[in-house]
Amino acid sequence: MITEHVYKVLEDEGVVSIVTQNSETGAHVVNTWNSYITITEDYHILIPAGRMFTTEKNLGGDNRILLTFGSRNVMGKFSLGTGFLVEGVGQFTSEGALFESMKQRFEWIRALLIVTPKEVTQTL
To answer: Which positions ≥6 away from 77 have C-beta within 8 Å?
Structure first.
């Protein structure tokens, strides 16, 4: 599911889009940086959150989440440049070993977004 190609893209700085939704306002999008992403040994995607209040609220009602990220410098399916779409579920936490580990890297975080991927698709 999460291939070496995904890791190569995340090693190159770029923007990650995080999409959640709610029944009142529809889709909500926030961004972070590729370099902020950590993938655990069991393939959970960890994203430090300084704000992301609407994202957190949305996940409380509908835990489905989409992530997109890419790199112009990593070979894609047909040419240089590739990207990925991650479909999964997300949850926020502000305690525990994963949070504390990320807090050491990013002193500014107030919470940790944990994404459990269900499907990872190469888009380019």
So the answer is: 122, 124
- Alpha-carbon span 3 to 1, nearest angstrom: 6
Give the integer Cα–Cα distance in Å for 26 and 73: 33
Beta bridge partners, 85, equal: 68, 121
- 0.85 exceeded by pTM: yes
At residue 88, what is the residue type? Answer: G
* Strand ranges inside 2-124, DSSP E: 15-22, 26-33, 38-39, 45-49, 64-75, 80-93, 111-122
- Which CATH superfamily, name and number, covers 4-122? Electron Transport, Fmn-binding Protein; Chain A (2.30.110.10)
Residue type, 47: I
pLDDT value of residue 31 = 98
